[in-house]
Automatic annotation (TrEMBL):
Keywords: Membrane, Transmembrane, Transmembrane helix. This is Uncharacterized protein. The chain crosses the membrane at residues 6-26, 33-56, 62-82, 120-141, 223-242, 249-269, 275-293, 305-321, 363-386, 445-462, 482-506, 541-562. InterPro entries: DUF6541. The keyword Glycoprotein does not apply. It holds the Pfam family DUF6541.
Length: 728
């Protein structure tokens, strides 16, 4: 099982990086920058392809789904190389100019145009990936009882079943999606409704991986979450810091050690919900920011600008299909950056014969953005075009401020405050980094974005007023997602703060070294000169890296081990331990679908014919049987069995136990081709979001079946669990 997990992780890396790197290579972008940006492009190619085939109502084979993006990337690369080589041949016949001025200038070689961007040595992305793999491997993977474990929350019902339906239907779409595959349309319990959008990028990648590795959806899903946290997110943060602070190498290096040090993100989002699509989208999101910043530079070459626009459009498609909330989070972050860029611009803008000051332009841009934001809010939310869930406040203002200062932001929430403990070490790093930006008058826009999101976190968990929906963006505005955006903006500041502490330590060491050199210079003799030379060699080669490493190691270690008060713990507890305990609880053995029941489902899978329709009680955990074991249970959602339910579903749900005496029930079972009945352990706890919808008697046609009920034969039996075969 774990072998399949790591195979899935390797396949996901190949899916998300190979097409993107190949296509970005055609732009002339350097390999490190292509590496950190590739998922934006690769995902978009898969998503666009899936929507096109879905719109044409054509099932797309797995091989086609995988090969088309690779073929597009290869063709673009080939075309660019062909044009470059053709230009070179066209200029071979030209006679060289022999003037003295021309001889002083190197003749053009007409190679592929190079992409102009900041220097990014390859070892830096590799450092981010290495630290990411170690951190996630040590903190997250040990909390999983098995590679197929999953958080049995409300959202996972959609994630697992929709993915399995994609695999069977061979349709990978965020518009035409369902809990049931195309061939199962007749057994869908509800009347078909109008198509609607739901971000299914996570499902598409998991569906492709599941088929390529021949594994299960939960294993492939965990592998995607692992890759997102350990590789995609660190590389995205690397691209952001490298763009914003290109000359600050220590800050860029420090970012590798702090990008996964905040337990609000990505850690808590691996438990809460679980909202895996949003988690992956947040992991990818920072990489589009550097594209936007590079695209809006005043001196961007035309060749680069064309490619940047293409990449930006593909990136927006990727974020939208992964989760649209990241679009609005990006707007919140990039608005201060744009405001600062316009205010510092040296371009001359003349209006009505008068030059407009940059500050005036900046304020005009801000007002324009505010108007557009308001229009979007009216059209999408007030008019009901998009979802807008209301999340009630649960904190006092004082507590909310303390949580923001402690970098835990969420506190005692309705979703489990035990996930997060305060992290004062990171609070200090963020504060030092913010001071650095104002002292050096560089990247101050990051502080503005971070402060806005921090105040927003305080506001939405403290006050219940309509304004918080307007201020926090659209689609979903719960505290966990807003806090995740805030943490993403805190990471570059923390990297700056850690780098400042490292520089302070190096400066202190340098001062001590100078005093030592002055003391040594007062002496005479060859032995003392030789000792001085050895000291210089040690300082120049080893001292700086050792001191920097020691400071970083101390800060990181203190962040992970300092016990802090936790709202669900009697004793102070380190943030890392608080997360591990919460993760073990979330992914551990549950009262809904236990390990015993999962083993029973495995036996059912081996017993029944492939594709056999099985009636079930969804709240006993069998609603996940389709997503976990590809068992075609009839009812796959915990609620919705009301006026919109099809009559056939209601008949079986209420009267299947009467199949031997009720001709209508027998005919309905034959029409839907229901062959078996699955009963797991009884629903004993209604505290979970899934089981809370259960009302005794709703599925009395299932629960009243016993070993002696006419028309049913026991096939498998273990404790109170049964698999019956309909014999009529």
């Amino acid at each position: 099982m774990w072998l399949e997990f790591f195979q899935s992780a390797v396949v996901i890396v190949a899916l998300l990086y190979v097409p993107g790197v190949i296509l970005l290579h055609a732009s002339g972008m350097s390999k490190p920058w292509a590496f950190v940006t590739a998922p934006l492009v690769s995902c978009a190619l898969y998503f666009i392809e899936g929507e096109i085939f879905s719109a044409l109502n054509i099932p797309v084979p797995l091989a086609v789904m995988i090969l088309v993006p690779l073929l597009i990337a290869a063709l673009v690369n080939g075309y660019v190389y062909y044009v470059a080589s053709k230009n070179k041949e066209d200029h071979r016949g030209e006679k060289p100019i022999k003037s003295k001025a021309s001889r002083a200038v190197k003749q053009p070689t007409y190679r592929m145009p190079s992409f102009v961007c900041e220097e990014l040595p390859f070892w830096i992305p590799l450092l981010y990936v290495t630290i990411g793999l170690l951190t996630v491997g040590l903190l997250f993977l040990p909390t999983l009882p098995s590679a197929s474990s999953f958080v049995q929350g409300w959202d996972i019902v959609h994630h697992l079943d929709v993915t399995q339906a994609m695999i069977e239907s061979q349709k990978y779409s965020s518009i035409h999606y369902d809990f049931y595959s195309t061939i199962e349309a007749s057994i869908t319990p509800w009347e078909p409704g109008a198509s609607g959008f739901y971000p299914s990028g996570w499902n598409i990648i998991v569906a492709l991986t599941t088929q390529l590795v021949s594994t299960t959806v939960p294993i492939a899903g965990n592998a995607l979450n692992f890759v997102s946290a350990a590789i995609i997110f660190p590389l995205s943060i690397c691209s952001l810091i490298a763009k914003v602070l290109p000359k600050h190498r220590i800050a860029l290096t420090s970012g590798a050690f702090v990008c996964l040090a905040f337990f609000v993100f990505p850690w808590s989002l691996l438990i809460y919900g679980p909202i895996f699509p949003n988690t992956v989208a947040f992991c990818v999101m920072p990489s589009i920011w550097w594209i936007f910043m590079q695209m809006t530079r005043s001196k961007t070459p035309k060749h680069d600008l064309i490619w940047l626009v293409i990449i930006f459009i593909l990136g927006c498609i990727t974020l939208f299909v992964l989760h649209p909330s990241t679009i609005f989070s990006s707007i919140v972050v990039l608005l201060p950056w744009s405001f600062a860029r316009i205010g510092e611009s040296k371009r001359k803008v003349v209006l009505f014969g008068k030059r407009v000051k940059p500050v005036t332009l900046a304020y005009a841009f801000f007002i324009f953005a505010l108007v557009i934001w308001s229009v979007f809010y009216y059209v999408l939310i007030i008019r009901g075009v998009a979802l807008n869930f209301w999340w009630s406040a649960y904190s006092s203002l004082q507590d909310a401020i303390l949580h923001a200062l402690g970098m835990d932001f969420i506190g005692q929430s309705y979703a489990g405050g035990e996930v997060v403990s305060p992290q004062p070490i990171l609070s200090i790093c963020v504060l030092v980094g913010a001071v650095w930006t104002f002292k050096h008058k560089q990247a101050r826009w990051m502080v503005s974005a971070f402060l806005y999101l921090s105040i927003l976190c305080i506001f939405i968990i403290t006050f219940d007023v309509p304004l918080k929906g307007y201020l926090s963006g659209f689609w979903y505005t719960d505290p966990f997602r807003i806090a995740a955006s805030c943490i993403i903006m805190a990471i570059p500041l923390a990297a700056l703060g850690l780098a400042t502490l490292v520089e302070a330590a190096l400066e202190t060491f340098s001062t001590c070294r100078e005093k030592l050199s002055q003391y040594q210079s007062q002496g005479q003799g060859q032995a003392k000169n030789q000792a001085k030379t050895q000291t210089c060699v040690f300082y120049n080669i080893w001292a700086k890296p050792l001191i920097a490493g020691a400071v970083i190691a101390c800060v990181v270690a203190l962040n992970y081990v300092i016990p802090m008060p936790n709202l669900k713990s009697e004793e102070p507890i380190p943030a890392a331990l608080a997360f591990k305990q919460a993760s073990e609880k979330a992914y551990g053995d549950h009262y809904i679908l236990t390990s015993e029941e999962l083993e029973f489902l495995r036996r059912v899978e081996l017993t029944v014919p492939s594709g056999a329709v099985i009636a079930n009680l969804p709240q006993d955990g069998s609603l996940w049987a389709y997503g976990t074991n590809n068992i075609h249970v009839l009812w796959r959602f915990p609620n919705g069995y009301d006026a919109s339910e099809r009559p056939a579903s209601a008949i079986l749900r209420k009267r299947l136990n009467r199949i031997a005496s009720d001709p209508e029930v027998l005919q309905t079972a034959h029409d839907l081709n229901v062959q078996y009945v699955l009963i797991l352990n009884n629903v004993v706890d209604y505290s979970n979001a899934v089981t809370s919808t259960y009302k005794p008697g709703t599925f009395r046609g299932i629960t009243q079946i016993t070993n002696t009920t006419p028309g049913f034969e026991v096939v498998l039996e273990e404790g109170s669990m049964r698999l019956y075969k309909i014999t009529l």
